[in-house]
Amino acid sequence: KSLDINLLGTINISQIFCEYFVKNKIKGNIINIASTYSIVAPNIALYNKNLSSIKKMNKPMDYVISKSSIPNLTRYIATNYGRQNIRANCLVPHGIKNQHKKDFIKKYSNLSPMGRMSDVSEVIGPIIFLSTKASSYMTGSTLIIDGGWTAW
Fold it and tell me: Given a cut of 60, is residue 23 above it in pLDDT?
């Protein structure tokens, strides 16, 4: 299911929009959403109490594989459609607080350089930036919003 949604869904919708933008000769701006698991592997300490057991891991391989394709798909669109005035960039958020259990929030906070999860409003700002002329010379970029998670 995650391959259908994250991988095929992103490919299909990107193709539809690229075709629409080209056919109608209008500037296009695609903002794909990936995950930090598109650039780093999940830290099993976040999901497992027993670090020697990968069986209980909360982020399965199909999720990681499907999210890993999004930054490269974004670069593909940028390089193949840039001359047709279509931009494509990728946002890589991580740790957005959303009804997580207290134990998970504590583990996440202990593993995060900023010591906390992000609020959804901290992801909205970068989306607005990528949606405006302020980012008009950006294409093929991956904008990481992860509180330093990938800096380790």
Answer: yes
Which band of pLDDT confidence, cut at 50, 70 and 90, is reported for residue 106? very high
What is the band of 60 on the pLDDT scale with cuts at 50, 70, 90?
confident
Region 76-81: what's the mean pLDDT?
98
Decide if 23 contacts 15 (C-beta within 8 A).
no
Please write down the HEC assignment for all residues of the chain.
CHHHHHHHHHHHHHHHHHHHHHHCCCCEEEEEECCHHHCCCCCHHHHCCCCCCCCCCCCCHHHHHHHHHHHHHHHHHHHHHHHHCEEEEEEEECCECCCCCHHHHHHHHHHCCCCCCECCHHHHHHHHHHHCHHHCCCCCCEEEECCCHHHC
Q: Are 38 and 92 in contact (CB under 8 A)?
A: yes
Kindly tell me the sign of the dihedral angle through the C-alpha atoms of 113, 119, 120, 125: negative
95 contacts: CB under 8 Å, gap ≥ 6: 36, 108, 112, 117, 118, 146, 147, 149
